[in-house]
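name: query_chain
kind: protein
chains: 1
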Amino acid sequence: MNDTNLEPLPVKELLRAFDLHPRKSLGQNFLLDGGSLNKIMRAADISPQDAVLEIGPGLGSLTRYLVLNARRVVAVEIDPYLFPILTQVLQPYDNVKLILGDMLALDPAQLMDGEPYVCIANIPYYITSALMRHLLEASLRPERVVFTMQAEVAQRICAPEGKLSLLSLSVQVYGKPHVMAKLSAGAFYPPPKVDSATLRVDLYDTPRIAPEHLDTFFRLAKAGFSQKRKNLANSLSGGLGRDKPAVEALLQRAGIDSSRRAETLRIEEWARLCPLFAENR
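structure:
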C-alpha cells in the first residue's frame, strides 16, 4: 500500500464549530498525525478490493484514508454528538456508509451485506474482549482485526503462554496478535497520558477452544482470574460456587496441578478443562 497524503483534519476547529469537547467516558482521543494514520493503514494491509468495517471512526480522520484505499467502508460510531461532524467530513465520498449505534448490539453480517471484510477499531481497551468475542462469534467473522489501543495493553495482549491475563487469553483464543506500530501520545488530540499502539490480530480458521465450549471457557477463565493470587482450586471453587474437592477432582482429570494459578495455564489446558466442567455443571 502506498502512503496516503491528506491535509490533517482540523479537529479542534470542528469540535469548536459544533460546541463539543472530547468525552473521557468514551475514551475520545482523536488521531491527527498523517504518519500515524499511514502506520495503521500499513498494519491493516487494505487493498482496493477490500470491504472495511470501522468501529469508532470519531471525526473521520482514519475513515478518510480508508475510503481512498478500500472498495467500501462501513463506519459505526456510538456518539450521537459526533455524528453530524462525521457526516460533514465524509460527505465528499460515495463509498462509505455511516451507522449511528453500538457495535456490540449490531450484526456484522447485516452491516457488511454478507461479504468478507477487515475490521479496524479505535476503542477503549476495556471493551476489547467483549468486542472481539462479538465479532468472532458472529455468523460472519472478519478476515483480520486491527485495533488502536494503549501500548501497554497491546503488549499485554501479546504476552506468551504461561503469562497470560484474562484479556490476552480472550484474544489469543481467536487469533495471533502482533504489535505493528507505536503511536506517540502527541499524535492525538487531546494527547492521552500514555502512548498507543496498533495491534493486528490474524485470525485462526477456528478458535483454539471448541465453539460449543466457548461459553464454558469464558466462565472458567473469568473465575480463574477473579482472584489472581489464589490457586486454581480456590479461584475456580469460589468463582463458580463449586465445592473445592469437586474442582480439584476435575483438575486432576485434566492433568492440571490444582496449586497452579490461572495465568500459568496454556490454552490447550483450558481446552481440556472445558468439557469436564461442562458435563459436571
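note: The chain has a mean pLDDT of 93.
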